[in-house]
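Bump. Still looking for Translation initiation factor 2 structure tokens.
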Amino acid sequence: MGREPADVRALDDEEERTMSESHDAESRLAHASRVATQELHKQGTPDYDPRAHERAVEAERKAAEAVRAQREGTA
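Sorry for the wait, here they are.
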């Protein structure tokens, strides 16, 4: 029950950082998807703003690309 070698701790830190970044990217994608869906459901109502919907869809696309890039980078 001694201390771990420095290289093992460094690997653990790297894995933790990668997992945290992956979780952050996935959280951003989930949020962007919710916003895009909310904007979509406003269609046909006075609250609908096509520009807001377009921005939400673009944000969702970028978030999905970030998740995809993160997964490819860790694979």
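The chain has a mean pLDDT of 85.

Edit: fixed formatting.
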